[in-house]
Amino acid sequence: MAQELKPDQSLNAAAKPRLLKGPDLPNIPWEDRPAGCYDVVWRSQRNPIIPRDLLPTSNSIFNSAVVPFRGRFAGVFRCDDKRRRMQIHSGFSDDGLDWRITPEPISFICDDPEIGKFTYGRYDPRVCWLEDRYYITWCNGYEGYPTIGLAYTFDFQVFYQLENAFLPFNRNGVLFPRRINGKYAMLSRPSDRGHTPFGDIFYSESPDLIHWGRHRLVMRPAEGWQSTKIGAGPVPIETTEGWLLIYHGVLTSCNGFVYSFGAALLDLDQPWKVIHRTAPYLLSPQRDYECVGDVPNVVFPCAALTDAATGRIAIYYGAADTVTCLAFA
Ligand code: BMA
User: Fold this and answer.
1) Which residues line the pocket of ligand 1, CB cutoff 6 A?
2) Which of 58, 152, 199, 209, CA to CA, is 20 to 30 A from 174?
């Protein structure tokens, strides 16, 4: 019989079944669930962990992705500069909380100048450890239109850009961390050139990370907080029960879009099949730093660290398109 747990209790690691499939991460940033809190996901007391002006040139630093790196942490950060160009920068941290962000935006090495040129901007990066290197996906301008950029790095110093994954218009391209049925796999959300008032999550596969096809619908918008559009968030987390996908959902209010996030469980072998999906949101914009900023009422998750030994998850999210925050589950 399953042991019943009160929300603020947890079994010791040895007695807990291992649900997460990835490696252990004993130095995962972590704060226990506050006393009296019954939420599945709770915020860091240190939020926002990255202020908008960490770089002298930055207007805002948000919607950013971090990974474990050589015993510490590295990441790719969305830094909109004071000209309001959307740029992505590398960054490093000893503890996942205090970040040193490289002052210059990432400069990609790219065989084809057609792909490498900067038009429209680069934003909302995700970072995925896959086979032997870190892949970066982001919303990339191609001739002024948004699509999914793809690059890789070994060291977060030198970045090699590949072909854009899809035709415009597309956003929220998120790789799976291993091949599925022998193919690379990516989630994305076809969009338009503006502040898209629709959006479903699709699954695509590729033999080589260049050519993408066999597109499958994963999820459409649903009721309430996710009624206007949805988009994949962090790289899916492999569990014994399926792929745990944290995703954002958007509601259109009298005052515009409200971005919250929830989660779904996708079939391990056929990830376009949804096993479970949250009806209530897991986190919605409620704190001042989520409700006040360049775009009010936005929480936008782009990365999650996991410790398989304890089942702990640390979720990095952008707040109000202005600062970077951390939450735990
Ligand atoms: C989306 C993206 C995100 C942003 C969100 C809220 O379309 O542009 O970068 O956080 O809108 O403005």
Assistant:
1) 63, 123-124, 195, 259, 295, 298, 300, 318, 321
2) 58
